[in-house]
């Protein structure tokens, strides 16, 4: 049977978007494999979440047990391992997230599953499951086929697929936890919230973003001067924050902030998907990058292919002239 | 504290054009410049910091070509004690699970408290190797680690989650940690260290030396097949602003001001 088992993801009482995004892919793959989609939800007190998922017309399998109040890779792995044996899904799907990347590789090793991480496309051709993923930060795509096996595993990139609208209610079935007692070699301790800085860039109207292409911190004043002139706040890629040019609360992207300015001028940022995911809400995007093939240009409304160290100082002068 | 740190030699393609080779089976890497993977640089620093704090030693492990010896020597110049470089054409290196199995072959029979990997390699970006390695070694792990606190045979690992949230987990040693960038400030190698590194042991091994059977890590063992590679078309709706740098600046300034954007 060609059933697809999707692992739902949630945190601090909220269902994460990836759980529904995967339902943009799962039904067509299940159909091609001649099976059905079942979503697995592990948690404690998760009736409402289960209902929300079922609203997408899929069956939801729920393990509702205090053991699963918080994510724990070892406990999740034990449950998935037991359910793979019991239900023999043809394909297991989970998110390429901080959770999925902590879980999937170990599961693949344990169960000897063909596994493709961080996929952006999924197809079935003559019964063979094929996944598309990116190499070299999006400059090359690869199609990887899963060899014949009872069960395969893929981890789906976040925000790569649009969450489908609810259709009708599927069934919710509660099952007993295959895991009976707590494990003691990995324990959840606590969450630590992101630090709050002097400026909340999620509220900024205009943002100037810098990346590794700025090269050295001595070039930072160029970006600062532009920002000051156009009343923008400064933000950056992870590389800019790691280098210490900006504090972590100024980072845009999956592991930083999601911003929605009217205008985003980014310079020396390549446009890695982790960065782009945080700036999708920007209305007008200006990208300055010397590499014509930089993925950031796919997000831009205005593109300048050139050296930022030449263009930006000149831009500052011209703006001063125009604004008087 | 006995530690192993896994590092990978990767091409810097952030500014380079990437082209496929004539057969379309791989990329033409002849013009790339290579260096240590970004996250692995932070992993080296974290292991050396722990060594300085708790005493102990760090062994570097890398699967890669002879040309990567410069990277390995640099890690030793920063304080790692010895290195194993694994080179063997029979490894199915398109599959991170095979790569993890080979790394495990170099570590499993030795005593260790912590194994460090980067959370993700910049070139292939699978973010798989470290967690797979932990499963093969049969020890606990934590992925995307931004802070490490060792106490009484346990480690508190601060994992980076989405949106800047962190999750603290406590795991027992020995363990594998996959290190996220920004966890520390990687040092520059001191001149004295660079000199000492030349005398440190760098063992080159193949699968036979490691006692890893080819059947377990070769193309037949891999459960995935690379079907094809292609260069995606970047679909841009952007207006491209042309001219010399000053002309571009002038046009952009006018667009921004006249469009009421600034
Ligand atoms: C789990 C995880 C989470 C992550 N989360 C985030 C996140 O939240 N946000 C984020 O940004 N990244 C994140 N990353 C990192 C991401 O994958 C990239 O590594 C990062 O975004 C790259 O930053 P960059 O664009 O500044 O640098 P690079 O990719 O190195 O790009 C530099 C760019 O500058 C250009 N350039 C160089 N010199 C010049 C010049 N003189 N003039 C003009 N252009 C020039 C180059 O052509 C290149 O395109 C995450 C990674 C992981 C693994
Ligand atoms: C479609 C495809 C085709 C490929 N073809 C080839 C090929 O023809 N030739 C080739 O050499 N590779 C090839 N690769 C790359 C190969 O799959 C990866 O290098 C390997 O599987 C590890 O995955 P990764 O690099 O994404 O590492 P990740 O899982 O992202 O790496 C995480 C960490 O693991 C450690 N690590 C990873 N690799 C090594 C290493 N070699 N030595 C020491 N530590 C390491 C590092 O600490 C690294 O930070 C291909 C990959 C794909 C997806």
Key traits:
heterodimer, A: 324 residues, alpha/beta, Rossmann fold, 9-stranded mixed β-sheet, 5-stranded parallel β-sheet, elongated, B: 262 residues, two-stranded antiparallel ribbon, 8 helices, 29% helix, binds flavin-adenine dinucleotide
List the helices and strands and how they pair.
The complex is a heterodimer of chains A (324) and B (262).
Chain A: E1 4-7, E2 10-11, E3 14-15, H1 17-21, H2 26-33, E4 37-43, H3 47-54, E5 59-64, H4 73-87, E6 91-96, H5 100-111, E7 115-125, E8 128-135, E9 140-146, E10 152-157, E11 172-174, E12 186-192, E13 206-210, H6 220-229, E14 233-236, H7 238-242, E15 263-267, H8 273-276, E16 284-289, E17 302-305, H9 308-323
Parallel strand pairs in A: 1-4, 1-6, 4-5, 5-11, 6-10, 7-10, 13-14, 13-15, 15-16, 16-17
Antiparallel strand pairs in A: 2-3, 7-8, 8-9
Helix pairs in contact in A: 4-5, 6-9
Chain B: E1 2-6, E2 9-11, E3 34-36, H1 38-54, E4 57-63, H2 69-77, E5 82-86, H3 96-107, E6 114-118, H4 129-137, E7 141-151, E8 154-160, E9 166-172, E10 175-179, H5 191-197, E11 202-205, H6 207-210, H7 214-217, E12 224-230, E13 239-240, H8 245-258
Structural shape of chain B: globular
CATH evolutionary superfamily of the largest domain in chain A: HUPs
CATH uppermost class of the largest domain in chain A:
Alpha Beta
E-strand count of chain B: 13
What does this structure look like?
The complex is a heterodimer of chains A (324) and B (262). Chain A is of the alpha/beta class. Chain A has two domains: 4-174, HUPs (Rossmann fold, 3-Layer(aba) Sandwich); 201-323, TPP-binding domain (Rossmann fold, 3-Layer(aba) Sandwich). Chain A is built from nine helices and 17 strands. In chain A, the strands form three sheets. In chain A, strands 9-8-7-10-6-1-4-5-11 form a nine-stranded mixed beta sheet. In chain A, helix 3 links the parallel strand 4 and strand 5. In chain A, helix 4 packs across helix 5 and helix 6 packs parallel to helix 9. The longest helix of chain A is centred in the last third of the chain and has 16 residues, at 308-323. Chain A is elongated and about 70 Å long. The relative contact order of chain A is 0.11. Chain B has 262 residues and is α/β, with parallel strands linked by helices. Chain B has one domain: Rossmann fold. In chain B, strands 9-8-7-10-6-1-4-5-11 form a nine-stranded mixed beta sheet, sandwiched between helices. In chain B, strands 2-3 form a two-stranded antiparallel ribbon. In chain B, strand 8 and strand 9 (166-172) form a beta hairpin. The longest helix of chain B is centred in the first third of the chain and has 17 residues, at 38-54. The radius of gyration of chain B is 22 Å and the shape is globular. The mean pLDDT of chain B is 95. Classes of the chains: A alpha/beta (324), B alpha/beta (262). At the A-B interface, helix 5, strand 7, strand 8, strand 9 and strand 12 of A face helix 3, helix 4, strand 7, strand 8 and strand 9 of B. Strand 12 of chain A pairs antiparallel with strand 9 of chain B. The complex binds flavin-adenine dinucleotide (2 copies). One flavin-adenine dinucleotide sits between chains B (6-8, 26, 37, 39-40, 61-64, 93-96, 99, 103, 117-118, 120-121, 123-130, 226) and A (135, 142, 144). One flavin-adenine dinucleotide (FAD) sits between chains B (6-8, 26, 37, 39-40, 61-64, 93-96, 99, 103, 117-118, 120-121, 123-130, 226) and A (135, 142, 144).
């Amino acid at each position: 049977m060609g059933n697809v088992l999707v692992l739902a993801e949630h945190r601090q009482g909220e269902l994460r978007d990836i759980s529904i995004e995967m339902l943009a892919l799962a039904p067509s793959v299940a159909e091609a494999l001649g099976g059905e989609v079942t979503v697995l939800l592990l948690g404690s007190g998760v009736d409402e979440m289960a209902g929300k998922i079922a609203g997408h017309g899929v069956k939801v399998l729920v393990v509702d047990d205090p053991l699963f109040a918080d994510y724990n890779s070892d406990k999740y792995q034990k449950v998935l391992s037991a359910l793979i044996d019991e239900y023999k899904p043809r394909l297991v799907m989970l998110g390429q997230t901080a959770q999925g990347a902590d879980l999937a590789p170990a599961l693949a090793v344990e169960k000897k599953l063909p596994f493709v991480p961080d996929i952006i496309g999924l197809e079935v051709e003559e019964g063979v499951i094929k996944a598309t993923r990116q190499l070299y930060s999006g400059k090359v795509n690869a199609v990887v086929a899963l060899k014949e096996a009872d069960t395969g595993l893929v981890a789906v990139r976040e925000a790569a697929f649009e969450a489908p609208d609810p259709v009708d209610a599927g069934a919710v079935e509660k099952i007993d936890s295959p895991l009976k007692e707590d494990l003691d070699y990995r324990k959840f301790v606590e969450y630590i919230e992101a630090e709050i800085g002097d400026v909340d860039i999620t509220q900024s109207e205009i943002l100037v973003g810098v990346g590794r292409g700025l090269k050295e911190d001595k070039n930072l004043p160029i970006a600062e001067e532009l920002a000051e002139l156009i009343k923008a706040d400064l933000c950056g890629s992870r590389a800019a924050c790691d280098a210490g040019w900006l504090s972590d609360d100024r980072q845009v992207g999956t592991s930083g902030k999601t911003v929605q300015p009217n205008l985003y001028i980014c310079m020396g940022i390549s446009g890695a998907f982790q960065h782009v995911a945080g700036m999708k809400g920007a209305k007008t995007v200006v990208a300055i990058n010397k590499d014509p093939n930089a993925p950031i240009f796919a997000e831009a409304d205005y593109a300048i292919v050139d050296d930022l160290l030449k263009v930006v100082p000149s831009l500052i002068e011209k703006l001063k002239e125009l604004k008087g | 504290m006995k530690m192993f740190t896994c590092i990978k030699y990767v091409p810097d393609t952030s500014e380079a054009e990437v082209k496929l080779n004539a057969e379309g089976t791989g990329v033409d890497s002849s013009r790339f410049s290579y260096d240590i993977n970004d996250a692995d640089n932070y992993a080296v620093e974290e292991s050396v910091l722990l060594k300085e704090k708790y005493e102990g030693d760090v062994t570097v492990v890398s699967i890669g070509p002879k040309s990567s010896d410069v990277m390995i020597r640099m890690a030793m110049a920063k304080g790692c004690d010895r290195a194993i470089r694994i080179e063997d054409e029979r490894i199915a290196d398109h599959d991170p699970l095979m790569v993890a199995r080979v790394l495990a072959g170099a570590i499993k029979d030795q005593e260790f408290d912590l194994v460090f990997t980067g959370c993700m390699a910049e070139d292939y970006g699978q973010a798989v190797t470290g967690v797979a390695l932990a499963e093969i070694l049969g020890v606990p792990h934590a992925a995307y680690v931004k802070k490490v606190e060792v106490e009484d045979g346990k480690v508190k690992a601060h994992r980076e989650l989405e949106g800047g949230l962190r999750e603290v987990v406590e795991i027992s040693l020995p363990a594998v940690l996959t290190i996220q960038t920004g966890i520390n400030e990687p040092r520059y190698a001191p001149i004295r260290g660079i000199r000492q590194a030349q005398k440190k042991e760098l063992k080159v091994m193949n699968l036979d030396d490691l006692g890893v059977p080819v059947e377990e890590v070769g193309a037949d063992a891999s459960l995935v097949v690379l079907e094809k590679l292609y260069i995606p078309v970047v679909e841009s709706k952007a207006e491209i602003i042309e001219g010399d740098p000053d002309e571009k600046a002038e046009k952009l300034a006018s667009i921004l001001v006249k469009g009421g954007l600034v």
